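Bug #77: duplicate submission created two jobs. Keeping one. Sequence:
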Amino acid sequence: KGKKKTPRTPGRHQGGGVRAAGVPPDLTMARLRKRGLKVGTLNVRTLTAGGELVAAKLAGEYGLDILGLSESRIPGTGQSDAGNYVMLHSGHRTARMRGVALLISKYAFSRLQGWEPVSDRLMSASFRMSGETLTVLLCYAPTEDTDAAAKDCFYDSLDAVVSRVPRRHRLIVLGDFNAKVGSDPQCGPGVMGRHG
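Kept job's structure:
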């Protein structure tokens, strides 16, 4: 009672984000953080007919706005409805192998600026969120057993896509990088510890 409220000073740290003087708070990532944009990834090991609806139901149960699906094995590229989500996919031209897909909530889809199906292992999507651009890269990396040329091609493509993302964009890289897990330090001396 009788306490004087301290006015908010533009540019001060508020709600997890720093904003420039004079910029309304609804144009910052802070508002997005308050809403709680949730992003996840899952290796589905083949998305059969109707599988996108099962994945969308799972994404909805966890309240995810964006769910990256690797090893989807959907041929070609395209967009389809999946319940309360929209699915964007990038796969092999004809064969049911590899493939990545993004399940995007209607909320996030309404903010989609564009997407690029780079290959059957890599895709990107950009969203206009609270006055800033968020770029999501979804990857499905080759395993260590894959020939060196295929691995080099994937990582060169990933590097090229990352380098095209403007520095002012927020960047999320997600997916299945087929990382080596284990406890044999001889497998990766100086890289892998005794716990993997």
